[in-house]
Amino acid sequence: MMSQDLLVDISESVLTLTLNRPESLxxxxxxxxxxxxxxxxxxxxxxxxxxxxxxGAGRAFCAGGDVKSMGSGGPIxxxxxxxxxxxxxxxxxxxxxxxxxxxxGYAAGAGSSLALAADLILAAGGSKFALSxxxxxxxxxxxxxxxxxxxxxxxxxxQFYFSAEPIPVERMxxxxxxxxxxxxxxxxxxxxxxxxxxxxxxxxxxxxxxKIINRAVTATLEEVLEMERISQPLMNLTEDHxxxxxxxxxxxxxxxxxx
Length: 259
Description:
The chain is about 45% helix and about 15% strand. By secondary structure, the protein is an alpha/beta fold. It folds into 2 domains: about 5-200, 2-enoyl-CoA Hydratase, Chain A, domain 1 (Alpha-Beta Complex), CATH 3.90.226.10; about 205-250, Lyase 2-enoyl-coa Hydratase, Chain  A, domain 2 (Orthogonal Bundle). The strands form 2 sheets. The chain has a 6-stranded mixed β-sheet with strand order 1-2-3-4-6-9, with helices on both faces. Strands 5-7-8 form a 3-stranded mixed β-sheet. The longest helix is centred in the N-terminal third of the chain and has 21 residues, at about 75-95. The radius of gyration is 19 Å and the shape is globular. The relative contact order is 0.11. The model has no long low-confidence stretch (mean pLDDT about 90).
């Protein structure tokens, strides 16, 4: 299902999903969420796609839920919408391809949750995270309270959600939430370079590494060690591993094919 609320582009093995409701700071619509989910599901089985970028059109990454329409649909509509958002977040987690969220302007409400569900966050200087649910008498959704608590601990997570005050990207970088801050004017180029580096990497290894790290958040050391023990022999069989070893011996840069 295609929608003007989401622009989909595939170039140089990178799938770029652009939230496209700039007039509302890319506030979520049902079609937008469904579009993200379906595009990422399709990317799972497309060997030509080796990295995924999620970004926003216009002045912001994403304002989250559309406040203008809140209160008009009733609890059943909210329940159904959150179910759709949950499917999107779980699809991002379960997709064994690296996902980069590109934040500029504001990542607010569930828009911040969407960014936190990515594997890496690249942000423009001056951007802000606004965990603004409490301003409209709501709790977090989209898994934000899960991801943020794992990253910064329960006390700061409570502070941020209780206060609902915008958090400068520099603070989020210091806390280890954001991977890199770049000047706004360099954002497009830096996104392109990062996405291309990921797409040119050993895709099978990246996918398994993502899966293990995600599990490591709640797993025991013994469980992680066992996952590594089972997975590493399979990595030995990949063409990318053989290419990496050969390139090392030949003192050249490896050319990975994601196989």
